[in-house]
Specification:
Nucleotidyltransferase, domain 5, 388 residues, 4 domains, 7 strands, alpha/beta
């Protein structure tokens, strides 16, 4: 006679029903002990008398679940994630993109499939990275072929430091964090993504690509912010010369002269604060981490390599980003002030220069350079085009 092996719960159920069948236990007692109904007790008694101990063993034990992902799909998921197209995406984003390949699985399932091959998200928590590193190091203690040891050693992930984020601002428009991220947004060259993020809601209020971090790029971000949201109460930035004058001629105790951006903020009544600590403006730094993970892949999928096409795509992507990652705070709790008309906005977003008219009827400026003049002309043509 074949030996029947049961799990702990199955063994308890078998022994209880056996006692009821042998008259050693009341059905009411069995109901309480097993937490099942009298009807189910009667059904188990009939099955036990017909089939014995075997009927308590789960019928699917040792068989592959009908809901399990087949090996072909697993290999396809692994191949897609390791491809150049999706390698920069985090697991959540990758799961969303798998719908384009007619693969509808949960994030947990996709993560488990990749973890079988020791693949984790580039945005995995430190706890997850630490646990995986410990598992891989434990494997190195076993006697493995040299090639296998090399493969495992290459998979061990360095644990990165993380910094806690401060509480959010209470109202929309109370504080904007502004910065630029230099990154390989495409495979061709470095671009700078200029953004402003609302500290309370986590919404991007503006975004703009350029090849360098410049004043006119921040002006484009400010134009989007003013037109789509309004005038914020305060802006937090770093200590770049775009925002703060770092002239060595300033004596101790003297106020720094206003930059072009600072004068614009003063005209609109915006408080401008600069900080040398990246952790203080952690909201925008964290947003760049999300954008570098997702936006690179989105540009790659759409085969966008031109900076003008990328800026056009940003117009729709900012709305998509905000709908997915914004905190959906109450729109009534906003301190954004009503912006002036577009003509006045364009007047505020301009360059102020000190020129001198010489006898030869020519203008002379000590601070303007050819590159800056070209940027001014480009910005002027763009503003005129938007107006007409």
């Amino acid at each position: 006679m074949r030996k029947v092996e049961l799990t702990m719960n199955e063994q308890v159920k078998y022994e209880t029903i056996k006692k009821v069948a042998d008259g050693l236990m009341l059905k009411s007692t069995a109901e309480v002990k097993l937490g099942i109904t009298r009807r189910h007790i009667n059904r188990l008694l009939v099955d036990y008398r017909n089939g014995g101990k075997e009927i308590f063993r789960h019928k699917s034990r040792g068989r592959k679940s009908g809901r399990a992902t087949d090996n072909k799909t697993k290999r396809k998921i692994e191949k897609l994630y390791l491809s150049d197209k999706y390698c920069d995406a985090n697991i959540t984003h990758f799961t969303e993109l798998l719908v384009n390949h007619k693969i509808n699985l949960s994030r947990t399932t996709v993560s488990s499939i990749l973890r079988e091959k020791d693949i984790i998200s580039p945005k995995a928590h430190r706890k997850t990275r630490k646990r995986l590193a410990a598992e891989l190091k434990a494997q190195l203690n076993d006697k493995l072929p040299k090639q296998k040891e090399i493969e495992i050693a290459e998979k061990i992930i360095t644990i990165e430091e993380s910094h806690p984020m401060r509480p959010r601002a209470k109202y929309r428009g109370e504080l904007l964090q502004m910065d630029a991220s230099k990154h390989f947004w495409t495979n061709s060259e470095y671009w700078h993504l200029h953004t402003a993020i609302d500290d309370a809601s986590g919404d991007l209020t503006g975004a703009y690509f350029s090849k360098e971090e410049t004043l006119d790029s921040y002006y484009y971000v400010m134009q989007q912010t003013l037109v789509n949201h309004g005038i914020p109460h305060k802006i937090l930035t770093d200590y770049r010369t775009v925002f703060n004058s770092n002239s060595k001629s300033i004596k101790h105790g003297e106020a720094s002269p206003l930059t072009q951006f600072g004068y614009m903020c003063k005209q609109l009544g915006i408080e401008l604060e600069c900080t040398r600590s990246p952790q203080k403006k952690g909201r925008v730094e964290r947003a760049f981490g999300t954008l570098q993970s997702r936006l690179v892949t989105e540009l790659k999928i759409r085969k966008i390599t031109d900076i003008e096409q990328a800026n056009k795509f940003l117009e729709s992507y900012v709305l998509e980003y905000n709908s997915q990652f914004g905190t959906k705070v109450n729109l009534n709790t906003s301190v954004f002030e009503t912006p002036p008309p577009i003509d006045e906005i364009n007047l505020h977003l301009r360059f102020y220069l000190k020129e001198q008219l010489t006898k030869g009827i020519t203008f002379v400026s000590k601070r303007i350079t050819l590159c800056r003049l070209m940027r001014m002309v480009k910005a002027f043509i763009s503003l005129v085009g938007q107006r007409f």
